[in-house]
Amino acid sequence: MTNMPLAALTVLDLTAHRAGPTAVRQLADWGAEVIKIEPPGSAHGDVVGGSRHGFDFQNLHRNKRAMTLNLKNKEGRDIFFKLAATADVVVENYRSDVKHRLGINYEAVANINPRIVYGSISGFGQTGPDATRPGVDQIAQGLGGLMSITGLPGQGPVRVGIPIADLTSGLLLAQGILLALYQRERTGRGQWVHTSLLEAQIFMLDFQASRWLISGEVAKQAGNDHPTSVPTGVFPTSDGHINIAAAGEGLWKRLCGAVGASELLSKPEYATPQLRSKNRKDLNARLAAITQERSSAYWIAALNEAGIPCGAINAIDQTFAEPQVQHLGIARPVQHPQLGEIRVVGQPINMSSAPQPPSMRPTPDLGQHTAEVLTGLGYSEAAIADLSARGVI
Question: Which among 158, 154, 155 is positioned nearest to 138, based on CA atoms?
């Protein structure tokens, strides 16, 4: 993978759960040499209890090497620092105080390698009254406001169907690491880069947050309707449902023509976006009475022909069966020594000068490359055997 953009980087991966591994996955997939460091004896998989050969672990930890190392042991920490002395990046997502207790925090690593970029994700931030609280995705979804605006009006709080705070914080940390590496090219020094599930979740509120910050409006649940764009939402068909997005004057006029309801254009209660928003319930009912007369396929073809954004509402198996999804090739093959050929979720980024390799490297077994990594540091076979016997690796 020497042609990949990050091929010159060495990354030490101390992460578990999902947020940290999501950040590291961005680096590993784009060519970085990642060494996943895990405690000896954790062969069951991740600390959340998933199987190492299960779908989640395999999707999160591909394209890495793996070693075991007891960081609570002085000799284990010594080996970590030997690795860190020549590494480019360290990534961890411990609770904010843990790295300091272990003695492997940014300052300790920077003392031996000032060029290190040290990436951290915590639940609530590295400092502040809640910094040492344990945090997981659903807690961040609730505390960060997302669950209050998700779901049907009046049904009570609803979590999003993916771990959005974990995933977003991981992607943002990966971006932050790349920013720090870019700055290092000018300054020669690394730095500590950190984010949290809570910060990432609030960032993802986006316009719903700015509605409050700028306009003083507290968003509420809007179900399948777009909170501010009308008509945008889910509409019934004769064999299911589809999404239609026709906000703005141009799309509104085209929609009325495409569904054979030009008379709606003359209705004073729908004359402006503000009035359409005020009378959303009645407008949606009028449109639904029309769309439910024909099939989803009919409306998707007709509305696309009219240039109106619309689409099917797929189950996940249907998503991967879509011709466009198959063309994009985002389901990527991996040849695993025990599992055979499996597929994982690939990268959504496409680079013309550095296309992704035809297949990805499988997630390594626990400690699979421990001896190989230690040999590279100069340890003999006998020394490695001794470290293993004493529980250092």
Answer: 158
Q: How long is the chain?
A: 393
pTM over 0.85: yes
> pLDDT for 20-36, tens place per residue?
999 999 999 999 999 99
Same domain, 124 and 188: yes
Taking the CB of residue 148, how many other CB atoms lie within 10 A of it? 17
Q: In this structure, are strands 33-38 and 117-122 parallel, antiparallel, or unpaired?
A: unpaired
* Residue 283 lies inside a defined structural domain of this protein: yes
At residue 95, the 3 state secondary structure works out as: coil
Q: Work out whether strand 232-237 and strand 240-245 pair parallel, antiparallel, or are unpaired.
A: antiparallel
Residues catalogued as catalytic: 166
Indicate the number of domains in the chain. Answer: 2
Q: Which amino acid is at 145?
A: G
Helix, strand and coil in the chain, % to nearest 5:
40, 15, 45
Tell me the pLDDT tens digit for each residue of 265-298: 999 999 999 999 999 999 999 999 999 999 999 9
